[in-house]
Amino acid sequence: MEAAMQDPAIRITGMNKFYGQFHALQDIDLKVERGEKIVICGPSGSGKSTLIRCINRLEEHQSGTIEVMGTSLDDNVDHIDEIRREAGMVFQNFNLFPHMSVLDNCTLAPVLVRKTPRAEAEETAMRYLERVKIPEQAHKFPGELSGGQQQRVAIARALCMNPEIMLFDEPTSALDPEMISEVLEVMVGLAKEGMTMVCVTHEMGFARQVADRVIFMADGRIVEEAPPENFFNNPQNERTKTFIGQVMGH
Amino acid sequence: MSVPSPAEISRQPFPKLLKDRYFATRIDTIVTVTFGLLTLWLLWSFFEWAVLHAYVDPEDRDACVQSEGACWAVITARWRIVLFGLYPFEEQWRSALACLAIVLTTILSCLPSFWTALRLSLLWIVGFAAFYILMRGGILGLAPVSERDWGGLALTLFIFAAVVLIGMPLSIVFALLRRSNLPWISRTMGLVIDTIRSLPLLTIMFAFAVVIPFATPDWMNGQQLYRVIVGYAIFFACYQAEIIRGGIQSLPAGQEEAAKALGLGYWQRVGYIILPQAFRNALPPTINQVVITFKETSLVTIIGFFDILASGRAASGTGEWSFATIEVYVFVAFIFFVFVFSLSRYGAYLERRLGVGTR
After folding, report:
1. Residue B276 touches partner A, C-beta closer than 8 Å
2. CB-closest option in A85, A89, A108 to B272
3. Fewer CB under 10 Å: which end of chain B, C or N?
4. DSSP letters of A214-232?
């Protein structure tokens, strides 16, 4: 247990990912400590989403190692399951299950995967739905909710598994502008409570507010890595400067 | 001039509604009158044939022959052959009860309160057991009746229910294998499906009924009827597998990814996320397939089984009633209609209930 506590939340070393001939991720090294909040940004096609999707094996990497909470991500199915239980994920398109009520969306995995008794799982689900401020929608279906509400349900659904790490893959990119803040608010709250978070996002305000480190990616590589203050005010790499100029310029 | 919406039209008083819908322009009026008269004439001709000039009493056989009307006398005289085929006359009440058992089981399994795997399996085990005991006999003091002598409606319903019940789970297995990540599994399954689909159903039935016994050991062969059912079920499964695969492929990739990210295993993803949505998407073509399957049970005549259509032909096959084939076919068609139309309406109910096309 002592040794396990010292493991970082995520440790990626020398990781490479190919799509056929295309070298999507090149020699990625990344360490995320427990409780740390990381924001990954970069132009589209730079590999941000691919990187975050490799962490829970939605994409398979070809070389290098990935460890999540001390468990190494390899072809062992038990390891993959273990990591997926510990890493919650929120998607750009919410991906709620449309044929289940909001409450069932939230209790499904705890009941099936964690074997939590249903009553207890529902209690937990209601607690998290209250936390994302939509307990009154528990018995509606995802199709009846707005985008912002759906994304908050998706966050609650991931939290119901009681994960150690939360992965956010552009959680606000598919939202109408007026709904972005309600989702960011939930994420900021989560960050304040000490959740380990890895967020792919273009919300630079969010990055400034909560990130311990900002990581800039281009062409499948990590180009720059710095605390937000330095990252925004004193970027080193030319591509980072251009990117920040574009993002801040509008 | 603005065209009133359908909702507006249906709120109008009746005569106005009639005028707006059918007599709005000169062409509308001509079309309405022409087709109205044609329909009336057809209906009247049928009514004249089926009711006014019809004979029902078997004693009136000779009058029938002369008459222009329908000779329902053939049905009153020989309905038991149509419904029960070659089943021994004294035992036909058993065949009737067996039909009832299948119909009842089907109706019960259409009720949402029976929609758990356990309840459905129990229900159908009981349903088929009841059918088999009643039809086959040999226990409980019932005289044994060989499968060769089963016939009529009971045989049609039995083949249909058995084919769908064996074929549906099989089709799910086929669809999942077809989508396997291992190329040699998915390609082999694809090849099997494509091969079976390119053969006529008749050939498949014939192969299972007649050819297979030469190739397999005796203990595997069983009764011809069951072999035909197995062959038909595999045929059904190949078509249905492609329908289900279509349903699965219409799901956004994010659905499976979200389930994976939550830690759900393969069977949990398939059972709770993929199949329920795939079935909902695939409901209209599934109903289509089930309806076709019901009607194509008639092909078993080729192997020499007396399904309801063949029994009907037998009923008018004697010299005495050979002039009345149309009446028998109309009667058989009516029975098919009752079953198939009910299936379709049930399908429509399911679509509404599951909200197909709405998210």
Report:
1. yes
2. A108
3. N
4. EEEEETTEEEEEE-HHHHH
B150-B84-B102 Cα angle (round to 5): 75
What is the ipTM for the molecules in this complex?
0.91
How far apart are the CA of A75 and the nearest CA of chain B, in angstroms? Answer: 15
SS3 A237: coil
**Tell me: the pLDDT tens digits for B230-251?**
999 999 999 999 999 999 999 9
The answer, for B349 touching chain A at a CB cutoff of 8 Å, is no
Distance CA B75, CA B81 (A): 9
Tell me the pairing of strands A10-19 and A87-90: unpaired
Nearest to A209 by CA among A31, A32, A39: A39
The encoded tokens of residue A80 equal: 């993959």
Chain B residues with beta carbon closer than 8 angstroms to that of A143: 358-359
For chain A, counts of helices (H) and of strands (E)? 10, 10
The Cβ of residue B199 has, within 10 Å, a number of other Cβ atoms equal to: 12
Distances, alpha carbon B298 to alpha carbons A139, A175, B154, B212, in Å: 47, 55, 12, 21
Do B358 and A143 lie within an 8 Å CB cutoff?
yes
Q: What is the DSSP string of A154-172?
A: HHHHHHTT--SEEEEESTT
Which residues on B lie below 8 Å from A89 (Cβ)? Answer: 258, 261
Range B79-87+145-354 classified under CATH 3.20.20.240? no
The predicted-structure confidence for A166-196, as pLDDT tens digits, reads as follows 999 999 999 998 899 999 999 999 999 999 9
**Dist CA A49 CA A63 (whole Å):** 18
Q: What is the mean pLDDT of chain B?
A: 84
User: Are A97 and B258 within 8 A, CB to CB?
Assistant: yes
CB-based contact A109 B264, cutoff 8 Å: yes
Q: What's the CA gap between A65 and B161, in Å, rounded? A: 54
Q: Note whether B181 contacts A: Cβ–Cβ < 8 A.
A: no
Alpha-carbon distances, residue A136 vs A141, A156, B168 (angstroms):
12, 14, 39
Q: Where do the structural domains in chain B lie, given as residue ranges?
A: 79-87+145-354
